[in-house]
């Protein structure tokens, strides 16, 4: 059972509840920069800025799927991959890396060329949907971690 499904009750959670959605060591480095462990203002601001950034980036990805702009999709995947990696959001990072590769007309590993644009777009649609799902999971967990259940 995925960690996100283990604790469906309301209330705060700990880092161990993130399971394979997060690289805990990376996220702990950000938490170490907080002056006050109860308020966690510094890390909270970074995380909540990421939520907005991810929402905006996914909107742009949807627009670029419609316009079939593979280069822009690759750039957006690269951008969001970096932000999610900084926070240790492993599943989001991995999906965004695939978006970057498919947008560059490569396979999901980035090692082989894929000249078929429509195949790349089909792959992008699937992996963007997965990235959004992974993001929603980690956003829900992080909101509970920061005691901000919407």
Automatic annotation (TrEMBL):
Keywords: Phosphoprotein. It comes from the Eukaryota. One of its GO terms (molecular function) is histidine phosphotransfer kinase activity. Residues 39-145 form the HPt domain. GO terms for cellular component: cytoplasm; nucleus. PANTHER family: PHOSPHORELAY INTERMEDIATE PROTEIN YPD1. This is HPt domain-containing protein. The lineage of its organism: Eukaryota, Fungi, Dikarya, Ascomycota, Pezizomycotina.
């Amino acid at each position: 059972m995925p960690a996100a499904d283990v604790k469906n009750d309301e209330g705060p959670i700990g880092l161990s509840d993130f399971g394979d959605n997060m690289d805990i060591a990376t996220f702990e480095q950000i938490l170490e920069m907080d002056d006050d462990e109860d308020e966690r203002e510094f890390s909270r601001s970074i995380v909540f800025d990421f939520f907005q950034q991810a929402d905006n980036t996914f909107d742009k990805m949807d627009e670029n799927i419609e316009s079939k702009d593979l280069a822009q999709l690759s750039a957006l995947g690269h951008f969001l991959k970096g932000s999610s990696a900084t926070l240790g959001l492993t599943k989001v990072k991995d999906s965004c890396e695939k978006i970057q590769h498919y947008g560059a007309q490569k396979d999901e590993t980035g090692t082989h060329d894929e000249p078929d644009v429509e195949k790349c777009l089909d792959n992008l649609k699937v992996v963007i949907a997965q990235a959004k799902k992974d993001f929603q999971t980690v956003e829900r967990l992080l909101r509970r971690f920061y005691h901000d259940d919407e």
